[in-house]
Design a protein that fits this description.
Blueprint: H1 2-20, H2 22-51, H3 57-71, E1 78-83, E2 88-91, H4 92-95, H5 102-108, H6 129-145, H7 166-172, E3 177-183, E4 189-199, E5 206-215, H8 217-265, H9 285-334, H10 339-368, E6 376-379, H11 380-388, E7 401-404, E8 411-414, H12 416-433, E9 441-446, E10 450-456, H13 490-500, E11 504-509, E12 515-522
Parallel strand pairs: 7-9
Antiparallel strand pairs: 1-2, 1-5, 3-4, 4-5, 6-8, 9-10, 10-12, 11-12
Amino acid sequence: MKSLSFRLLLFNVLLLFLPMGSLLYLDTFESQLLASQEASMVQQGRLLGSALSAPDAGSLEEESLRILRSLDERVDARIRVVDINGRLLADSATVIRPSLPVNQQSRQAGVVSESNSGAQAEPAPNTLLLYRIAVFPVNVVRKLLVPPSNYSTAEFYSGQQVLLGPEIKAALDGRYGSITRYSTGGQVSVTLYSAIPVFAEGRQDVMGAVLVSRSSYGILRNLYRLRLDIIKIFCISLVVSLCLSLLLSLTITRPLKKLKTEAEHILDTSGKLSGHFRGLRRRDEIGDLSRSLAALSEKLGKRNIFIETFVSDLYHELKNPLAAIRGQAELSRSSPDREDDLLAGIQAEEQRMERLLAKLRELSSADSGKEKEKREIINLADFIPLLLNRYAHSDGGLNPAFNNNAADNALVLMNPDSLTQVLSNPIDNAISFSPPGGKISIGLEAADGYWRIVIDDEGPGIQAANSERYFDRFYSERPPETRSGYSGLGLAIVKAICEGEGGFSSLENRQGGGCRFILCLKRV
């Protein structure tokens, strides 16, 4: 049971890690956001570069300062303009609100400085303990699988008046230049740099370059919040999953453990059935299983009682012929002159035992259902008249009459030999109990899903109180002097075969006297 509980818990917990895969998707999302940010920076740089077309360097500096002042706080990136020699002409971080410190001016303009310095009003999500614990395995795997990036520091231009980084050199050569640098300071992020050339008005001469830079920390901070929300949802789901798994485990393992305990005590030390399963009141599959086991144990108990009774009856039936054989054998020693008569008696008892054992073999075959392997479709409307031909010259002139009140095609799926036994045994009983000149009739009619065969005779009838016992093994109400040739197993064999084929049989008294045997066989 512990293994089952652990598997249920493991299965539920593993399912929770599937949504955690969305954390890996956030890396792709981050790349898309960075690409969009770079595109936005390039667009701003191109617009400013187009507006800055000037005939000389002096007018370029004046125009740069004028445009940056007019932008005021509407920029979301740090914009710098350099001349052909890389000298810094204008910087949005100093032009916009010059009375403020540089880092505060940048935040007022919606820009995070390259160093990301300055205290934050609220702690960053990635600094929380829950976040750090959750992403630690991811960071370990990332360090092992992803090679480190060789980025320079974002303080590359800090405090410089001549900016000649590789991206600016590319722009001064008339090409687009870009580079990514690590931001140092409070939080680790990257800063994107895009340099766009500024051409002279009416000519293709490069007069300078526009450098647009923006930190990715704003994007990362939002991604950190999103990751933290996913981690919180995961933790809550994990707690709920653990509780549900425990509850589910108890509702499954406890009744199964109870069934296991009952199974261990259902047999005594000698291997006999000493108890039975108690069905649970649950309405789920475990309840169905417990009720099935209860029904099974009840049937096994009845089967054990039947076997014990059967052995006792068999011993009783075999004891009489054995006692007769023993007595006649001892008598033959003391009366040699009667040896032939005594030998004939021994042979008669031996034949009686053979008939009894043959019937028992038939009964065993009917119980085990071996004959089902040879079944075929049989038309009762044709089969019954052929069977009755064997009684055409029976003793006493009792010729059973057949009345077909059903369809011409009354089809059943049975073994022919088994069907012969099912019909001949009650017919033989009807003949043996009928008085001289009595009438026997066999009727065939349709019933709900069955073909109903009714065998009527004009015999003495049965004792209604013992109607069910007539199908018991070795039970017979014949007088002892008339039991020769009868084993008391005929109707038991009929019942076993009939029930094995999905049908049923019964015995009752007729109105006006006599007995009625009813046999119902499933239609095809």
